[in-house]
């Protein structure tokens, strides 16, 4: 009798690390990840199962917002541990039968990964036994154009994601990179941003005295204005 095969063990990926590589079959053909997405931001997200209500609401929402994410140079890639034919049948059902919150005839055109071996889900820490041994949790990985993981968010099976927040995270990361700033709590484009902490006493004094174009609450906490228009001009590519 053959010995039972042992599932490979992977360390869960972390922010600042290279996104784990894989090749997979999807509803849009084969992909090589993240290699073929070089130069674009990517949101890689998992869902527990096809033909489930929370996942259906999420896929309809993502598909409806896909153009908005694409304009921010971001591609969407979904994953579940179901097979390809299940994926295709489910997405066809969404398009032909589901009418939810004014969303109908919704066609999902971004790739949905087949992962029946759970190899990809395991590499990305999407299988969490405390929640389920056979389904992926709702994981979200925001990956930058260099293939580096910049944000990781996990949700339990019962909780649908907030897509306004996912888009806000994407724009905040891009704004921080483009303007060398940080974003405060609840930041939205157009709100003041945080400038790096002063690197010298002289700079700190200039900031506190108002010589620089910013508002300083103390030497370590200074903000400046950055308009929504400035951000959109630099990072959005509307067609």
Report the structural category: alpha+beta
- The tally of structural domains comes to 2
Name of the CATH first level of the largest domain: Alpha Beta
Q: Given the structure, what is the number of helices?
A: 6
CATH architecture identity of the largest domain: 3-Layer(aba) Sandwich
Write down the overall geometry: elongated
Question: Radius of gyration, rounded?
Answer: 21 Å
Mean pLDDT rating: 90
Give the CATH topology of the largest domain.
Glutaredoxin
- The CATH homologous superfamily of the largest domain corresponds to Glutaredoxin
Biggest sheet: strands side by side, in what order? 5-4-3-6-7
Which key terms come to mind for this protein?
239 residues; Glutaredoxin; alpha+beta; 5-stranded mixed beta sheet; 6 helices; Antioxidant, Horf6, Chain A, domain 2
Give an overview in words.
With 239 residues, the chain is an alpha+beta fold. The chain folds into two domains: 22-160, 3-Layer(aba) Sandwich (Glutaredoxin); 180-235, Antioxidant, Horf6, Chain A, domain2 (Antioxidant, Horf6, Chain A, domain 2, 2-Layer Sandwich). The chain has six helices and ten strands. The protein has helices spanning 53-71, 84-97, 119-123, 163-179, 201-208, 228-235, and strands at 22-26, 29-33, 41-46, 74-80, 112-114, 138-143, 149-155, 193-194, 215-218, 221-224. The strands form three sheets. The protein has a five-stranded mixed β-sheet with strand order 5-4-3-6-7, covered by helices on one side. The chain has a three-stranded antiparallel β-sheet with strand order 8-10-9, with no helix packed on it. Strand 6 and strand 7 (149-155) form a beta hairpin. The chain is elongated and about 65 Å long. It starts with 21 loop residues before the first strand and ends with a helix. The model has no long low-confidence stretch (mean pLDDT 90).
């Amino acid at each position: 009798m053959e010995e039972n095969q042992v599932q490979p063990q992977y360390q869960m990926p972390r922010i600042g690390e290279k996104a784990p590589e894989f090749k997979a079959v999807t509803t849009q053909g084969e992909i090589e990840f993240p290699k073929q997405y070089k130069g674009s931001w990517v949101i890689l997200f998992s869902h527990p199962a096809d033909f489930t209500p929370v996942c259906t609401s999420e896929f309809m929402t993502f598909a409806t917002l896909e153009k908005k994410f694409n304009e921010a140079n971001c591609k969407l890639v979904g994953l579940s541990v179901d097979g390809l034919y299940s994926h295709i049948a489910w997405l066809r059902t969404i398009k032909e039968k589901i009418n939810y919150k004014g969303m109908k005839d919704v066609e999902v055109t971004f790739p949905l990964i087949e992962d029946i071996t759970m190899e990809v889900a395991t590499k990305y820490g999407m299988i969490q036994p405390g929640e389920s041994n056979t389904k992926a949790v709702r994981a979200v990985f925001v990956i930058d154009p260099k293939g580096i993981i910049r944000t990781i968010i996990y949700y339990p099976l019962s909780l649908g994601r907030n897509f306004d927040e996912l888009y806000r995270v994407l724009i905040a990361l891009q704004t921080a990179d483009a303007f060398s700033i940080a974003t405060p709590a609840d930041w939205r484009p157009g709100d003041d941003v945080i400038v790096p902490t002063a690197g010298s006493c002289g700079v700190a004094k200039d900031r506190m005295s108002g010589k620089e174009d910013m508002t300083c609450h103390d030497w370590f906490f200074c903000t400046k204005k950055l308009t929504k228009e400035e951000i959109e001009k630099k990072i959005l590519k509307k067609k």
